[in-house]
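EI: anyone free to look at a 559-residue chain?
SC: sure, send it
EI:
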Amino acid sequence: MGKKILYLGISFLAFIIVLTIGYFFLRPDYYSSVVVLNSGWEVTYNDTKYENVELSNLRKLIGNRTHKGDIITLKNDNVNLLNFVSPTIMFESRFSAWRVYSGEELIGQRFLDEYKNGKFIGCENNFVSLPKKIKPSNIQINLLVAEEGAYDYYDAPAVGGYVGLLTFEVYNHMFIYLVSAFLIVFGIIFFAVAIGFRSDIAEVNMQIYAALMYLVLGIWFLAQFRLLDLFIETNGHQTEIEYISLYMVVPLMYLTIGCMRDYLNNKVFLGFSVVGSLVPFALIIIHFAGLVHINRTLLIYQLDAAVLIGFMFVMVLLKDAKGNLVTKSQYTQLIGQIGLASAFAINVFFYYLEIYGITKQIFLSKLIVPVAAICMVFGTLLNYYTFISESFARNEEYSSLAHLAYADELTGLANRSKYEAYMEKLTKSEMDYCIVSIDLNGLKAINDNQGHLMGDKYITEFGKTLDEIFGKEGFVGRIGGDEFVAILTGDSMDKLDEFIEKLNNKLDELNKLDPSINRSAAIGYAFRHEYENADPNRVYLKADERMYANKELMHGTRS
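SC: here you go
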């Protein structure tokens, strides 16, 4: 177990190193192609005007949170666009309709109809082309706030070429982008693998829901950091995708935990999981029914998630893990989930500090959930690797026990119990078959005159020879001291005489090499098709009868 953790730990560090290297090597030279417009703004908030404002400090000037119906006007008279081939402004709008002016000219607008009709407006990174001018341009952004608390802090717009801005935005969130891409790809692949091995085993089904959780987490990160719209067209639904993917984490977490030790059959857990999973679905339905916008229900979801975390801590960590009822493979998965839950709790804590104007979210609070998700991925891999290793060990143990139960100790051939089980299968079968009864000649005399070691040698050599000739073609077993049986089906029955001749020739060769034992066998056989509605025992009795007739003939010939 220690080596497995070490190897996965090394893999995790290698993954982080690759991300870090990628972060620096893919760093674009955007300082000459992108200008961040943080200072020099004239801001009008409703009827109050603020001069020469740095947007990062605007919340401190305005105080409180913005309200539905507020109008915020951002104006900058000194934007130099001369260095850009196709100048573009990039700015974030949060739950707002907007208009962009260059001087007196309206050059872009969006979500005005949704604003007038009271429909949901999400958060977007907007790109608006600007007219290229020799002199510094006047740019004005009007924000029409559609939700309470839309702007907790203000991110400064940036101007540059479109490609430069796109590269700038991706690089600023390179870690998030790479983590999200990894989670989505890993989730899809691991889900396909888990589906392929789907069974009644809890650990396997647990991987299915864990894979889906990684998939929705990857989508959530992209949408939360406004990266999803950079690569696919969401038609203004990026924020809804963000909240829906986030809301799916709790049900998937319940399902993942529920597969541990078959918790879903526990009435208490089932009650919690059903109610806890219905809450996010109800919030989504309420949103699309037009009753309450999905961002307004975040607190309810957070409380629902807090119940999950508390329940997971009490039931799983304190009760079952402490009582040594959780397997090693489940325990690694559990640690990953607890780490993810703890990261969410820290993220929520700093989120509310930002909402109430105490401080903006620190960089670590934004990255802690993606980092925890990656840690959980490696926990899942360790869980899966441990489960597979334990499964192979159990299978080897079961195979060993099965071999001991059904194998003859001396020859390694099937024993009488295996023979009877095989005969039972033949009873239920409609196919034709041939049963060959084989009896060693002279075994008792060898045991009496030369000792049981020589007798065992005789049996062992004969068993090996019989298996070489008949083993690849059908069933071979030792059912008594000197009694052997072979059962042939299909095309192998046509080669019966050939097999018998090979067996006799092989015994003659052994006699020449080692004349201390006179090796020979009496053989008789019978086919199912010789009788109507014959059962295997009757066919065997006939083969046995013919074997004894052959034995008497051999004794008569020798005398």
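EI: The chain has 17 helices and 14 strands.
SC: 👍
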